[in-house]
Amino acid sequence: MTNDTEIIVEITDYSSEGDGVARLPDGRVVFVELGARNDICRIKLTKDSKSFCRAKIEEIIEPSIHRIKPDCPVFGKCGGCDFRHITREEELFAKRKRVNETLKRIGGFDIESEDILAVNDDGYRNKITLSVIRRKERVIAGYRRKLSHDIIDISRCNLAETGISKRIASEKAKIKNYKTVPENVVIRNNEVTMNGFTFKFSNKSFFQVNTKAAAALYSKVREFAALSHSDTLLDLYCGAGTIALYLARDAAHVYGVDIEPAAITDATNNAAINSITNAHFICGDAALFDTSFDIQPTCIVVDPPRGGLNADTIARLTTLNPQRIVYVSCDPASLARDAKLLTAYTPTRLCAVDMFPRTAHVETVALLRRNNT
Known about the structure:
The chain is of the alpha/beta class. It is built from seven helices and 20 strands.
């Protein structure tokens, strides 16, 4: 087939990036931009390779019952959203299905998500990052087009909290006066209150972008951790200490570890703000932090970057030998891979969290129990 070949397909699924998935007559998988499950459409190939193809929709012959009219003028151009063309019910179905299938396909685990926690659908992001470029006297600031370096200029964003969205225009006005235009501009709310806790954090500290969904996630982490007042909790990749401090009320001792010094400073300050005295924070690598701390955790929480745990961290977890590991992941594939490598543990509970509504991303929390306990 050539790139100008047109063909009729039925969309049967969604990819991890949010594209529709179909099969060509020769059996190859084709990823269809903005496809909806059960669409019957005429497509035009934009990438044609032996292993897979990409395509755009030329005509929707029979629209899916899950398809809706997008409510954003730049949807389909801007790379910020993936799912504004399908219903929320279909989006949540796709995300939960992805989590379940990924754990089985990559990890070999016969376990399904008990639920998908979804507490909001728009106006949730407490942080956005705008890509910026100046063209003559005009400043273009927005999100990059999907699979491209092109920047789509925006003046507002449906995903952002109202206050964050309103700041886009003022930030663009400021940039016009800069002698040197920055590549990126971060607009962030640096203080968030949730479930009776107050957290403050610097721009270098990690915090979930969806405050309400984070509260739901933390409640699920607390449920899975099932701490008693004799337990010791170790929180790896602790960021500003939010999970550690949220769980500190249930444990005897809580330790948080993060490689970013600013995060440890924020975590220590947050402990003071919330009058929590049984939490201690250590600056160091998750696998190599100072062993002079005699930590014998009964439960470990890990919330690693998208790439998951490295081999050294997995080895360290095995050496520490906790009864339970609560794994928070923004990528089901890395969770499945790491759970498979933690051979002394078995996932016994799983829950998806819609941390990033209207995008293809999904958060997951899993409880891994030590075998024979």
